[in-house]
From TrEMBL:
InterPro entries: AAE_transporter, RCK_C, RCK_C_sf, YidE_YbjL. It comes from Aporhodopirellula aestuarii. It is a multi-pass membrane protein. Pfam families: Asp-Al_Ex, TrkA_C. SUPFAM superfamilies: TrkA C-terminal domain-like (SSF116726). The lineage of its organism: Bacteria, Pseudomonadati, Planctomycetota, Planctomycetia, Pirellulales. Belongs to the AAE transporter (TC 2.A.81) family. It is found in: Cell membrane. Its main location: membrane. This is Transporter.
Amino acid sequence: MNPVTFSILAIVGVAVGGLVIGGVRIRKIGLGSAGVMFVGILAGHWGATLDHDVAEFAKEFGLVLFVFTIGLQLGPGIVQLWKDQGLVLNGLAVAVVVMGVLLILMFHSIIDLPGLAAGGLFSGATTNTPSLGAAQQAAATVVDADTDLGMLASAYAVAYPGGILGIIATMVILKSLFKIDIEAEAESAAKLSGAGFEPIVRRCILVDNAHLSERRFGDIPGIEETGVRISRIKRGDALTVDPATDQTVLHPGDVIQVVGTEAGLDRFEPLIGRRSDFDLMDYKSEACHRRIVVTEPDVINKTLRDLSLDLIYNSTITRIIRSGVEMPGRGSSRLQYGDVLHVVGDEESVDRVTQLVGNSVKALNETQFAPVFLGVFVGVVLGLIPISIPGVPFPVKLGLAGGPLIAAIVFSLLGKLGKFVWHIPLSANLALRELGIILFLASAGLSAGKTFFSVALTSQGLLWMLAGLVVTMVPLLIVGLVGRLVFKVNYLTLCGVVAGSMTDPPALAFANTLSDSSACATGYAAVYPLTMVMRIVAAQTIIYMLLA
C-alpha cells in the first residue's frame, strides 16, 4: 500500500479508537482526546507505522491548529487574567519548572541517572518536545562527535506517556482532595472573567435640577465615568416619548429613561433629579429599539465617541453585549467583531446605524480562512526567531507551539488588520481545535509506540519511568496545593495552569472535558509563553551542568 495512504488510514483508525476509549467515563472522568495518544502507542507497538514526513507534518500542523485556535479565542480573556492573577499564575508555573530541574538533579545523584538520560527524562516527564530539541542541540556541543545521542530520545519516549497520565492524575487528585464542585467552579470563573461588569438596568428619572436647564445630556459633568446612557425622553406634560441621545437638551420637568449599572445610576440620579414613577416604555413613542451585530471591519476598534452616532445618526448605543457579558455603552468603548449593540433611535436612524456596523448574520457565522492562515504563517515565523538570553550559550525559540499561540493572542487583541478580521465562530474554532489535537496525539502516539515497550519494560526503563512520574507529579501537586490553599485559585484555572506549566496539549484537552468553561484554556495560555521559554532554557542547563 502507498505509504501516505497507509499513514492516513493509521491516523484515522487510531483517532476513532482513541476517541471511543476517551469517551468512556468512570465517575464522570474520562481521558477525552488524550485517549488517542495511548491507542496510538499500542498501534505503533503492534506494527502500525507512519511515513516519517507524513507523521511530522500531521503532528506539527495539528499542534499549530490547536494552539492557534486557543489563542485566537482567548486573547482578550488572557489579558484580563494577566492583570488580575498573572503574577500568581506565572509564579506557580515557574515553581513547577524549577522543582522539576531540582528533582532531575537529585535523581542524577541518587540513581546514577546518566546526563543524556537526565535531559531526555526532563523533557519527557514535562511533555515538552521543544526542550528535547534544545537538549539535543546542547548535547551535540559538549560530547564527542561519535557519541550516540539516542539515550536522550529513549528517555524522553519512556517518560512522555507517564507525563501525560501524571498530569491528568494530578488534576483528578486535586479535584478529589478539595471536593471540587465543577459547576460551582465554572460559575465562579465566569463571574471572575466578567469582573467589573454589573448587570445593566434601566431607570426613569424626573429632571428637577434647574442648573441643567438648556444643557445637553452629554455635557453633564461625570456622565462618562458613571457609564449612564440616555435612550428616551418625555417632555413636560407631553403624552408621547421621543428617542434621546447625548445631544438631547434637558429641561426641568422632563422625564428621561437612562440605562446603566445600579451603581452608576445611583451616582447619576442625584445630579439631575429623582426617580420617577413613569415607565416610558408604556408610552407611545417614535423610539425604535434594535439589537445589531458588529460585522463591518471598518468600525472594529473604533470607539463610540469616534463614530459619533448621536451627532451623525441621531441614535444611542445603550448597551454592548460581548461574549455574553452586558456592558454600558460608554464613549470610550471600542467595538469588537461580533459585539451585539442595543441601539435606540427613530426607525430611519437605526436603519442607518445597522448599515454602518454590518449586522450580517451570514458573515458572523462564516470562517474567514485568509486571516487564519496569515496568522498561522506569522506565528510559525515568530516561532523560528532565535531569542538570546544572557547566560545561555544558544538562542532559544518559541517553536511551532509558542509562536502561533503568541501570534493568535496578538491578532485577537488587534481584531482586524485592513479587511482581515481575526474571528472564527465558536463552533468552527472548537472543531479546528479538536482536529488539531487529534492529529497531534495520533501521530505522536504512533511514533512513540515503536520503541516505547522495548525500553519501558527493561529494569532501567521502568526506573526511568518511575523517576519521570515523580518529576511530573510532585511539583504539580505541591503547586496545586499552594495555588488552591494559599492563593485561592479557581480549580478550572488551576487545571489550565497545571497543563500550561507542562506545555501539554493532551492534558489541556482532558481539562476541557471537565467543563464547558473557558477557564482551563485561559489559564493554560496565560502561563504557556513564559513556561515554554523556561523549559527550553532548563533542558539546556541540565545538559551543560551534567555533561560539560
